[in-house]
Amino acid sequence: MSIQNNDSGVEIQNTKQIIITIKPEFVDIGLQEFKSADPEGRLIKWFDQGIGLFRLSIGFNELTAYFALQKPIYIQHISPIQTEVQLTQTEEDLQVILKHVNSNSSLLDKNKSFSVQTRFIDSSMERSYKRFEVNKMVSTKIQEMGYTLHIQKPKQIISLAFYESQVYIGISTAEANLSDWSGGQHRFAQEEDQISRAEFKLLEAMDVFDVQLPENSVALDLGAAPGGWTRILLQHDATVYAVDPANLDRSLKKHPRVKHFKETAQVFFTRNESTKFDVVVNDMKMDTVESVELMGRAKRLMKSNSIMILTLKLPKKNMKKRVDQAISKLEKWFEIRGVKQLFHNRSEVTVYMQNKK
């Protein structure tokens, strides 16, 4: 294997194949993002819906450098391929995999934590070993070599993608992969008092965009019912103005830091003049144009450094156009700090913003 050190990191000369993951309904737009970075790159084959094997015409570092400047919205995950190994689906595979990971271990940095991320892309394929067995075997060996294992928030990742009779092995930074989660699939444990699945969207947004809520903040939750996002804001010590004509979950009704305004956001804006908010969130089921206009109306209630998280609900057609138009309008009022089609989004894109002073 030919490698060289340069200012942008380690460039693996024969890393000409990558695996890209995109939500199936956003595949066409995600492919446009890939082509913008590597016009001569091409799709080799789809492993599954939204998971494809691609050939690069440029270096992997060049691709990741482009995406560091032009952050992709719709591509959720990338992993390089340094080695492709033929498998027998028997226990013997484990030692073969370990051998090839070991041969690539010089690409790891001992000053950075690592994690092993194993994906069985073809989940119906019968193998004599489990995903966790592969993870444990490889991570134990790498730890014995003096590297530090961090399953959560690793700085570098050993990616093992199994498909049919092959495993594709790659080592890269979490930043280069666009996510420190396997396949970009953020997973959160379901809590006993969880109110709705929508909570995962807010948790993922806060993680992906590294959102830090101000201490003892005053938050405005537009379209709050049944109260999932309100519950997450409360966990961060916020006082929440929950605006929605519908009822909130019973666990929130008598909470001392929840003020429920049982009315539409439009009515709330006409009645509220004095309260200023540190945080505004909006996950309303509303046309993108209306959602954007609503955030514009909310601006006068925001403090100079207020932060906002908005979910744009998208139609089946012209999704990219709708997002581009929404961002163009929003950036007149706010600083756009992140835009991403998150794992827990459906036909949606999440926008993270800060108020312009």
UniProtKB/TrEMBL annotation:
Pfam families: FtsJ (PF01728). InterPro entries: RNA_MeTrfase_FtsJ_dom (IPR002877), SAM-dependent_MTases_sf (IPR029063). CDD domains: AdoMet_MTases. Residues 196-288 form the Ribosomal RNA methyltransferase FtsJ domain. GO terms for biological process: methylation. Keywords: Methyltransferase, Transferase. One of its GO terms (molecular function) is methyltransferase activity. This is Methyltransferase domain-containing protein. It comes from Chengkuizengella marina.
